[in-house]
């Protein structure tokens, strides 16, 4: 039976933490630059080690560095004040986790003054920071902009064979709150999804797991990264551009039942997906006091039809799911 490492009582990190950036490792830098600049329509700059993608005043929101993984290899979490950072570090220390302090060029490559890194769920490197590096340079984008600010970059969704451990990590270490849950069927398998908020954004993290026999059909560490567009036109124009470029649209435009976001999903050059969405629910301070998690049947109210789904891709997912049964998944803050 699993037991949870005790964490000292204290202040909360809720509404004092947000998704800051993601780091992607790829050999396909030219494809990523075109995908980002011409398709997504975001600001892309070449760096010594790869690409820096901007969508607001932060120097880095998506970092694409040269490397073989073709995956998200690090996720940055912004603490909104120094006491919040200190609280997070105390919690990690109390759980016996090894945390590395990083500064200098490595931190600057992430667009931050300094960071504290540790092995998060599924052994993805999690990086905590307080002070981002900001830029006054004008953004060159093909869209009107993205919603970030206090709520952070957006959200990501991950699949896991250890959903209870993942939920425990985000709730106990980051004080995440459950917004709602969804049950869906995919390729004959029942999926249970939990949506966690860290601030007013309906969810910063979504956790998906197969019911019964726990399998992970994904090669990549996350399923998708969400960016929230400022307008519906940004969503439809982005969809049109990416289709015209020949990018694989994983799911056409549709709407989710829980956060009501209108969105589509496109495969990145590295294989994981990016969701471009508009107008999801924001859980305001007034709504927070009375919020009760709901449960929904099906991931979409309408649309989100898969495009280009083949029997080969279905078989590939099944094969990866079965292969995942032979590997132990890394958990954080849970001991046997």
Could you describe the 3D structure shown?
With 336 residues, the protein is α+β, with helices and mostly antiparallel strands. The chain has 2 domains: 10-129, 2,3-Dihydroxybiphenyl 1,2-Dioxygenase, domain 1, CATH 3.10.180; 149-324, 2,3-Dihydroxybiphenyl 1,2-Dioxygenase, domain 1 (Roll). Helix content is 22%, strand content 33%. The protein has helices at residues 29-40, 82-94, 104-109, 163-173, 232-244, 285-288, 311-324; strands spanning 3-4, 17-26, 43-46, 50-54, 62-66, 71-79, 100-102, 115-119, 125-129, 154-159, 177-186, 189-197, 205-210, 224-229, 249-255, 262-267, 273-278, 294-297, 302-303, 334-335. The strands form 3 sheets. It has a 10-stranded mixed β-sheet with strand order 18-11-12-13-10-14-17-16-15-19, with helices on one face. The protein has an 8-stranded mixed β-sheet with strand order 3-4-5-2-6-9-8-7. A hairpin with a 7-residue loop joins strand 12 and strand 13. Helix 1 (29-40) packs across helix 5. The chain starts with a strand and ends with a strand.
Set down the secondary structure blueprint.
Blueprint lengths: L2 E2 L12 E10 L2 H12 L2 E4 L3 E5 L7 E5 L4 E9 L2 H13 L5 E3 L1 H6 L5 E5 L5 E5 L24 E6 L3 H11 L3 E10 L2 E9 L7 E6 L13 E6 L2 H13 L4 E7 L6 E6 L5 E6 L6 H4 L5 E4 L4 E2 L7 H14 L9 E2 L1
Parallel strand pairs: 2-5, 6-9, 10-13, 11-18, 14-17
Antiparallel strand pairs: 1-20, 2-6, 3-4, 4-5, 7-8, 8-9, 10-14, 11-12, 12-13, 15-16, 15-19, 16-17
